[in-house]
Amino acid sequence: MSNEFTDGERLIKLETKFELLTQTLTEAITRLEKKLDEREENYVVKAVLEEKLKLRDEKIAGLQSGVNSLRQNIEDDKNTNKNVLPIWLGIVPSVAAVIVAIIALYK
What we know:
Elements: H1 7-42, H2 46-106
C-alpha cells in the first residue's frame, strides 16, 4: 500500500474541513450579528439627535435672553439710584437742620 489516500478517505477529510470551516464561519457571523445589534441599540438616529440639539439651542437662547434681561435690570437699577441720589442729598441737610433745631430747643 502506498501513502496515497483513497477517494473515500480524501472525501471524509474534505468533509471534516468543510464542516469545521462552516462552523467557524457560522460562529463569526453570529458574533457579527450580536455586535451589529449592540451598535444599533446605541446608535442615535440623525433626526433624534437634531431634535435634541435644537432643544438644547433653544434652552441656551432662553438662558442668554434671561442673562441679558438681568443685565438690563441691573443697569436700570443703577440709573434709578443715580436719579435718586440728588433727592437724598437734599434730604440730608434738612435732617441735619432738624437735629440742630432740636438741640437748640433743649439748650
